[in-house]
């Protein structure tokens, strides 16, 4: 069941404005996602909350498989995170770190290499079991269920907070499990600069610096520093500390509110233009490769979106390749999913990369194992 949100979880406001709407096909169903903005505090969130996304069980068997390798994109991302955090490492007597939503453990590994005593929380069964086999201490339950005596110098939320249904409860739990001088690290997409992949259905909430500060104020915390050296303006990274005084939730200025709405409207127009380009690109690839075997590389949400955008793609492809071991020997819309190690054996005539965020990385990896002339990007100029 979809859940209509009547009040903003941060300020209690009831005046919302629709800023972005999208229809997506997911797991065989069609869903409409409305992103609204609270006209008082500027928090952006999905309303109504779409049923399959508004409970933790959705993530129990789901994960995002990261391309591995020290020179890969995620290694650089995690180095950026730990460099920001380590500016304050010397303030702590103990260097204990908890990574909430630690996924496959890249950030845990990096933090451990930089001298932190690390633990993690991961509700996805696949990753939780894998990390425990590697020797990490990883809990498979939300932070609020950890023993009250468990305290950490730093608690990290790396691209996690935007997925959580109850951010107030989560931030209160984080505050309770920090040492008195402890810090909270939060990284989320920056709602001031929405991009093509920003309004994904799994991003229940979207934050700006003001709405993040208001969220922290609700639980007795405040922003200590905003990282000015992130991976670009689309990423928001903050370190937060416990407040010495109680702070009220602040009303967003009319000028700032208008700028957020205009950014979202521009993003919507840009997305529509991008979709038209993708359709044109697909049609060109299919026209030039009639009668040839065509596969998509990538069997995740992007592939679902692509097939929803251009249903004829399903008739033209023979299957999918993917690097996620959990997807192998499964099907997507009735088409088989193969591991990338089967590329040479199956030997497709054409591979279309179905990814936005990892397109260049996948392309470079494929160069090492396959004829790159048979590989096509969707987002190249």
Task: Tell me what you see in this structure.
With 381 residues, the protein is α/β, with parallel strands linked by helices. It folds into 2 domains: 58-251, Rossmann fold; 258-376, Rossmann fold (3-Layer(aba) Sandwich), CATH 3.40.50. Helix content is 29%, strand content 24%. It has 10 helices and 17 strands. It has helices spanning 73-85, 106-113, 125-133, 167-176, 209-218, 254-288, 301-309, 312-316, 343-346, 359-367, and strands at 16-26, 29-38, 44-46, 96-100, 117-121, 138-139, 152-158, 178-189, 205-206, 221-226, 235-242, 294-297, 319-322, 331-332, 335-339, 350-353, 375-376. The strands form 3 sheets. It has a 7-stranded mixed beta sheet with strand order 6-5-4-7-8-11-10, sandwiched between helices. Strands 14-15-13-12-16-17 form a 6-stranded mixed beta sheet, covered by helices on one side. Strands 1-2-3-9 form a 4-stranded antiparallel beta sheet. Helix 3 (125-133) links the parallel strand 5 and strand 6. It is globular, with a radius of gyration of 22 Å. It starts with 15 loop residues before the first strand and ends in a 5-residue tail after the last strand. Mean pLDDT is 88; it is low at 63-71.
Radius of gyration: 22 Å
CATH superfamily of the largest domain: Vaccinia Virus protein VP39
Order of helices and strands: EEEHEHEHEEHEEHEEHEHHEEEHEHE
Low-confidence stretches: 63-71
- Give a count of the beta strands, DSSP E runs of length 2 or more: 17
The major beta sheet can be summarized as: 7 strands, mixed
Shape: globular
What structural class should be given to the helix and strand makeup?
A: alpha/beta
Main sheet: which strands, in order across? 6-5-4-7-8-11-10
Number of domains: 2
Subunit organisation of the chains: single chain
Helical percentage: 25-40%
């Amino acid at each position: 069941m979809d859940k209509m949100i009547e009040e903003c979880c941060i300020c209690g406001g009831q005046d919302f404005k629709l800023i972005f709407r999208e229809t997506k096909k997911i797991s065989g169903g069609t869903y409409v996602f409305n992103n609204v903005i609270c006209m008082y505090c500027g928090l952006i969130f999905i309303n109504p909350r779409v049923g399959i996304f508004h409970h933790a069980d959705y993530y129990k068997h789901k994960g995002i498989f990261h391309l591995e390798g020290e020179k890969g994109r995620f290694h650089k991302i995690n180095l950026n995170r730990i460099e920001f955090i380590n500016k304050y490492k010397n303030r702590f007597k103990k260097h204990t770190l908890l990574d909430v939503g630690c996924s496959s453990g890249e950030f845990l590994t990096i933090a451990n290499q930089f001298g932190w005593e690390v633990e993690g929380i991961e509700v996805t069964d696949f990753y939780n079991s894998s990390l425990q086999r590697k020797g990490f201490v990883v809990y498979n339950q939300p932070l609020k269920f950890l023993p009250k005596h468990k305290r950490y110098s730093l608690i990290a939320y790396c691209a996690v907070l935007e997925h959580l249904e109850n951010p107030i409860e989560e931030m209160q739990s984080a505050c309770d499990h920090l040492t008195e001088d402890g810090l909270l690290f939060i990284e989320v997409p920056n709602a001031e600069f929405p991009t093509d992949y920003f309004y994904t259905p799994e991003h229940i909430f979207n934050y700006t610096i003001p709405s993040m500060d208001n969220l922290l104020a609700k639980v007795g915390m405040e922003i200590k520093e905003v990282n000015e050296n992130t991976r670009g303006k689309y990423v928001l990274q903050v370190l937060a500390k416990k407040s010495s005084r109680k702070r009220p939730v602040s009303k967003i200025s009319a000028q700032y509110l208008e700028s957020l709405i205009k950014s979202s409207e521009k993003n919507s127009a840009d997305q529509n233009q991008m979709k038209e380009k993708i359709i044109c690109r697909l049609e060109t690839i299919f026209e030039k490769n009639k009668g040839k075997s065509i596969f998509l590389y990538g069997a995740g949400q992007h592939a679902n979106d692509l097939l929803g955008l251009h249903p004829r793609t399903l008739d033209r492809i023979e299957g999918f390749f993917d690097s996620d071991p959990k997807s192998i020997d499964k099907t997507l819309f009735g088409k088989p999913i193969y591991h990338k190690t089967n590329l040479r054996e199956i030997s497709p005539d054409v591979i279309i990369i179905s990814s936005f965020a990892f397109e260049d990385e996948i392309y470079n990896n494929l160069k090492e194992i396959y004829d790159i002339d048979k590989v096509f990007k969707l987002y190249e100029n």
